[in-house]
Design goal:
The protein has 289 residues and is an alpha+beta fold. 55% of the residues lie in helices and 17% in strands. The strands form two sheets. Strands 4-3-2-1-5 form a five-stranded antiparallel β-sheet. The relative contact order is 0.08.
Length: 289
């Protein structure tokens, strides 16, 4: 081979490539325009579909899922049309023919990702939870902000968001505090052995029942549980609407109300390790003291 001819051959080859590329520019430009058009069309159709479905369905998760699928399908159609404009018909056919094989390979390679997508779809259809619900799942409690195909996003009430894989949410137990619209709050404490138990029960239930957020259609329940070393333990139950009342705030208000009422009626809340002069109180409460 005569290496002196190499520059000429390289120049000729590059010139051929450049001429072919220049002839290919119009088709490439049209293909790009077609793909961009379908991209904007997918957003417009997805937005219109979402707005239309919101008028006839309150399933926000299913509405978002449908909008996402519409966008993906339209963009896929745009991609195939753009490849057709470029004359890559065989490539389009190969892509369609290999789609099943690729999907199978992806399914095996990304089993967790596939499981999350399927679980997200089932959550959107079955609706065990909805956007706005307060739930407890996988050790997290919070308000559901978004239900995606791959995950569920929650506000944990501490200034952070928690994103849980859809598979874990779908396969594990869920406590939904918003589905029924009621939530029972439990307050536990104990009174001293020298106090009148009936009086303590009446004072505590009256104090909690007067709180404005306690649901009036559900009576406040007060039950003694057992005899402990330092006190007689009790549990007090009351009901709130979790959509309008924070559970922790309600419990805090109830504790203050019970403590205030017990102080007014001289009822002791005794816990193990506390030292109260019970004999002195007993002496002061006896007749003639």
């Amino acid at each position: 081979m005569d290496f002196s001819q190499a520059p000429g051959l390289i120049y000729a080859e590059l010139s051929l490539w450049i001429r072919n590329a220049i002839r290919f520019v119009p088709e490439l430009a049209v293909a790009i325009i077609v793909f961009v058009f379908f991209t904007f069309l997918s957003r417009w159709l997805s937005r219109g579909m979402v707005q239309g479905l919101r008028r006839i369905s309150d399933n926000q998760s299913l509405v978002n899922l449908t909008g996402a699928l519409i966008r993906v399908l339209v963009v896929a159609v745009g991609l195939f049309v753009a490849l057709g404009v470029l004359g890559l018909d065989k490539t389009v056919t190969s892509l369609l023919a290999g789609a099943g094989v690729i999907a199978l390979a992806v399914g095996f390679a990304f089993q967790d990702l596939t499981a999350n997508f399927i679980s997200g779809t089932m959550i959107a259809l079955a609706r065990p939870i909805q956007v706005g619900d307060t739930v407890e799942t996988n050790g997290y409690t919070g308000k559901v902000l978004d239900i995606k195909l791959r995950s569920v996003v929650m506000d944990n009430g501490q200034g952070q968001t928690v994103e849980i894989p859809s598979k874990d949410v779908f396969q594990k137990p869920i406590t939904n505090f918003s589905r029924i619209g009621l939530r029972r709050i439990e307050l536990t404490a104990g009174v001293s052995y020298i106090d009148d138990l009936a009086k303590a029960q009446q004072v505590a239930t009256t104090a909690v029942a007067r709180l404005p957020f306690v649901l009036k259609g559900h009576p406040v329940e007060f039950h003694y549980r057992n005899f402990a070393d330092a006190n007689i333990q009790f549990v007090l139950w009351f009901w709130i609407n979790p959509s309008t009342t924070n559970a922790q705030a309600a419990l805090s208000e109830a504790i203050m109300a019970v403590k205030r009422a017990f102080d007014e009626h001289q009822i002791l809340i005794v816990f193990a390790g506390q030292t109260f002069d019970l004999k002195q109180k007993l002496t002061n409460t006896q007749p003639g003291s």
